[in-house]
Amino acid sequence: MSTTVILKNALIDMYGKCGAMLDVQDVFNRMEIRDSLTWTSLIMGYAQHGETERVHNLFDKMIEAGMRPDQVTFLTVLTVCSHVGLVNEGYKYFESMVKDFGVAPSPELRNCMVDLLCRAGQLHEAVLLLKRSFAQPSFVTWVMVLDACHKRGNLELARSAFECALNLDDNHSSAYSAMSNILLNTQTWDDVASVDVMGAVIQACEDL
Questions:
Q1: Contacts of 76 (CB under 8 A, 6+ apart)
Q2: Single GO molecular-function term (predicted)?
Q3: Burial (CB count <10 Å: 0-12, 13-18, 19+), residue 78
Q4: If both were cysteines, with which of 15, 65, 113, 174 could 23 make a disulfide (CB 3.0 to 4.6 Å apart)?
Q5: Lowest mean pLDDT: which of 26-35, 49-58, 99-108, 167-176?
Q6: Does the pTM exceed 0.85?
Q7: 136-208 in CATH: which number?
Q8: Four-CA torsion 62, 64, 69, 72, nearest 10 degrees
Q9: d(Cα 167, Cα 183) in Å, to the nearest integer?
Q10: Cα separation, 125 vs 51, whole angstroms
Q11: Where are the domains of the chain?
């Protein structure tokens, strides 16, 4: 990669973070040589400013230009899909990532897809995706599912996610807090008391 390309990629990234999209596009248009990072930086710039349709169009143009998207590219487009609830499009990118480009689904990519499904209320699909994963979901991932169960009032799935979270880390108050809120919302009073006691003990230990 030439020094010129590296510098111009850095300019695109900087202008994008500053919201100077006219400057971003100007630098991009003037580049005679572009690499995958050039395209990814351009896509990230528009993604940061909520230009969903342009992000999808640029991704397609990136492929047409013969560039291979990487984990950062896919994380960017999946995050956009998550924020606007484009479940079908998100699935398309997630499946294409592995099948067409051989990009391994990192924990960040998997969590992004789970977040997309949870935001759309497709909690069972999110859990199914986690159970199909080769890598074990993290504690943070299960707490994310718990929070989604809280918003959707899904007690049955919340119990399962709570158990999975505790199997990974039973000394963190966030899981107890999330589960307690779900039980309160569903008026499951007996369980609330036991979860609150455990959560209070864990919180006290964390504060020491």
A1: 40, 43, 44, 47, 55
A2: RNA binding
A3: buried
A4: 15
A5: 167-176
A6: no
A7: 1.25.40
A8: 20
A9: 20
A10: 27
A11: 1-51, 136-208
CA angle (172, 178, 184) in 5-degree steps: 135
Question: Phi then psi for 113, rounded to 5 degrees?
Answer: -70, -40
pLDDT in tens, 157-204: 988 898 898 888 877 778 888 888 887 776 654 554 454 444 443 453
Residue appearing with tokens 């998207």? 69
Residues in the chain: 208
Sorted by sequence, the CB contacts under 8 Å of residue 111 that are 6+ apart come out as 138, 140, 141, 144
Q: How far is CA 129 from CA 91, 132, 148, in A?
A: 11, 5, 15
Q: Which two tokens stand for residue 104?
A: 């391994």
In this predicted structure, what is the pLDDT of residue 131? Answer: 84
Q: Can you read off the two tokens belonging to residue 100?
A: 């067409």
Query: Are 181 and 153 spatial neighbours (Cβ–Cβ below 8 Å)?
Result: no
